[in-house]
Design goal:
By secondary structure, the protein is an alpha/beta fold. It has helices at residues 9-19, 31-40, 47-52, 68-80, 93-96, 100-112, 123-137, 152-160, 183-202, 222-238, 254-271, 293-310, 329-346, 356-377, 382-392, 431-448, 454-461; strands at 58-60, 87-90, 142-145, 165-167, 208-210, 243-249, 277-283, 314-316, 410-413, 419-423. The strands form three sheets. It has a four-stranded parallel β-sheet. α4 (68-80) packs across α7, α7 runs parallel beside α8 and α10 (222-238) runs parallel beside α11 (254-271). The termini are far apart. Mean pLDDT is 96; it is low at 479-484.
Length: 484
């Protein structure tokens, strides 16, 4: 039976031996030799020490292309021209689905053509030595970012290749990403990943783990996002992970975002063991962007301003070309510089925003209610509890494609643009918190002269890409934007 217990060393080794045959590069993984490579890296390339010692929010873009030399050139540009403090390697979609043969075909085609036939870097296909060439070529630490429900072989290859930070988790890379993976199996797979990270950590090579905070990236209520972060952090800590970066995706209301980031850090330090160093990462807006670079820069600037006030340890930046898909390296670097400019101009200002403390208390109470429900569902075991809670609907994520989640919870913005819950379904929140959300949405309905309905939800999903925060009907307060 699945439990939140530490994977035994012989079981870790047995699984690793089985995975080596999934793709030939797995057979080149040698743990002892990998530890020696990590120990050879200079201090500036060690992810956890760089992140945990920073005295300002560090910036990290998203970026991944198929071929090694192109990936090196791209990351070097973002490092030198964008001022990235931390670098990413985004993995391609075939690898995320463990389809290494198709990734190999795409890699071969990309090498022979002028266009990229993959939407990221196929690290498993490149293998350990190519990963090390990438690590050696850059000055900054590099994180693996992917979206893989079963990331075991990817973790084996990339960690042996010198990466020291690995994004994702059993909930955050399942519920928002896939329909067909059951949660129990995904948790087992990520227990292996976290135990592998723990094994490196026990040898003095700290591997930073970063659960994916934005989830579906669409109006996720902060209490749901933070509860998932805490559960994934606890599961990772059980396996020996000692550096955890908890994530949160911008919803667009400055007060709510600052309150959520402060709640995230506070609850992370409260719920995770003392042996774990907790840091936070803020993802700039993950929803639809305006189809106009000037307006997109406005969205990015609000993210930078939020980071300057909330002071997370890391910010994942966006580019002004976000609306059209994968940005050029120039646009990606511009997003970094825009965010840095906002943070550096604002971070020393003493900005006093009203309402943050009340909002933070509301988020913390709701988050604790969800964690309590998960722990009750599992009789104290969070691995069993999170499965039971998602099965009953006591825990849920809006707009989730996974069969493991009810997907019945629906969010909408209140009259101030804060994300509230319009449809609770079976979400395990106290009655008074539900009443608070309903009252806030009622204020908006009165302002707009319409009933609370699913129409509000639909209007809010597209609002920012349409040039607004709140999806109000045309003619009401705020009215139609110039982009309409």
């Amino acid at each position: 039976m699945l439990t939140d217990s530490k994977l035994p060393a012989d079981e870790l080794q047995r699984i690793a031996n089985d995975l080596r045959d999934d793709w030939h590069t797995g057979r080149t993984v040698d743990f002892e030799e990998a530890v020696a490579f990590h120990e050879s890296l200079p201090e500036g390339k060690q992810f956890a020490p760089v992140l945990e010692s920073a005295d300002r929010p560090l910036l990290q873009p998203r970026a991944g292309v198929p071929c090694l030399e192109d990936q090196i050139d791209l990351l070097r540009y973002l490092q030198d021209q964008g001022g990235a403090d931390l670098l990413p390697t985004t993995i391609d979609s075939y690898t995320r689905d463990n389809q290494y043969e198709k990734a190999e075909e795409g890699l071969a085609a990309s090498r022979n053509e002028d266009t990229d036939e993959l939407n990221g870097f196929p690290a498993v296909n490149h293998g350990v030595e190519d990963c090390r060439r990438l690590i050696r070529a850059l000055d900054a630490p590099i994180e693996v970012r992917h979206g893989t429900p079963d990331a075991r072989l990817l973790a084996m290859v990339t960690l042996a290749g010198g990466f020291q930070s690995f994004e994702g988790g059993p909930i955050s890379y399942n519920i928002p990403y896939t329909k067909r993976h059951d949660l129990a199996t995904t948790i087992e797979h990520w227990q292996f990943v976290d135990r592998l990270c723990g094994a490196y950590t026990e040898r003095g090579v700290t591997i930073n783990r970063e659960p994916f905070g934005p989830l579906t990236g669409t109006l996720v209520p902060p209490c749901i996002a933070i509860a998932v972060m805490l559960i994934e952090g606890k599961l990772a800590a059980t396996q020996g992970v000692r550096s955890v970066t908890l994530g949160y995706g911008q919803v667009g209301n400055l007060v709510q975002d600052v309150a959520a980031l402060r709640a995230l850090r506070k609850l992370g330090e409260e719920y995770l063991p003392d042996a774990v160093t907790v840091t936070t990462v803020f993802h700039e807006w993950m929803g639809g962007f305006p189809p106009d670079e000037a307006r997109a820069n406005g969205v990015i600037s609000l993210g930078g301003a939020t980071a300057a006030v909330a002071r997370p340890d890391k910010v994942i930046t966006k580019s002004p070309e976000e609306f059209q898909g994968v940005p050029t390296k120039e646009a990606n670097a511009a997003g970094l510089r825009t965010t840095r400019q906002l943070i550096d101009m604002m971070i020393e200002q003493d900005i006093d925003l009203g309402g943050i403390d009340d909002e933070q208390r509301l988020i913390e109470r709701a988050t604790k209610a969800l964690i309590d429900a998960i722990e009750r569902a599992g009789d104290g075991d969070v691995a069993r509890g999170v499965i039971a809670a998602f099965d009953s609907g006591a825990m849920d994520v809006p707009f989730a494609p996974s069969d493991a989640a009810a997907g019945a919870v629906l969010p909408a913005r209140d009259d101030d643009g804060r994300v509230r819950i319009f449809e609770f379904a079976d979400l395990a929140l106290p009655a008074d918190i539900k009443e608070t959300h309903k009252a806030k949405l009622g204020e908006r309905a009165r302002t707009e002269g319409r009933d609370q309905s699913f129409r509000m939800v639909a209007d809010d999903v597209d609002a920012i890409s349409d040039g607004k925060l709140i999806g109000r009907p045309a003619g009401h307060r705020g009215g139609a934007s110039d982009a309409d």
